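#lab-general

N.A. 3:47 PM
ok so I finally got the sequence cleaned up, no stray characters, all 148 residues accounted for. can someone with queue access submit it? mine expired

B.Y. 3:52 PM
send it over

N.A. 3:53 PM
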Amino acid sequence: MPVLPIVTGKDTPVLRKKTKPVPKVTKEVLKLIKDLRSTVKKAEGLGIAAPQVGVSLRVCLANINGKMTPLINPDITWKSEETMMMQEGCLSLPGVDVDVRRAVEIAVVYLDEKGKEQERRLHDLDARVVQHETDHLDGILIVDYLRK
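B.Y. 4:20 PM
back already:
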């Protein structure tokens, strides 16, 4: 499981592009997940998305309940009206911290590593991390919240 180089820079094209959905969970997708896992562990992050290692696929890992969880084709289907402002950093923007307002609670649907659909309701930090990582999959970075 190699540690992949993390793509940095707010104007880097792969970080600004909306990712392609994963049509099928293949050996290549599972290898990407393993590589993402070793990369985020080495970087000591709470999550990582495929574009951050130069891959424009709808795959990310998020620390949920203390476990690094792969989410394939994640879709946030509901967000609470209650929001909270919190400072966030990003592995692709070293040294940059931004106050970001996010929903306190979300519902997310995704495929697991076996290609089985999962639905979870998340709150607090778990919800924040998934929102941050799915932003990456849509070409959105934390610096974009400075304008809001």
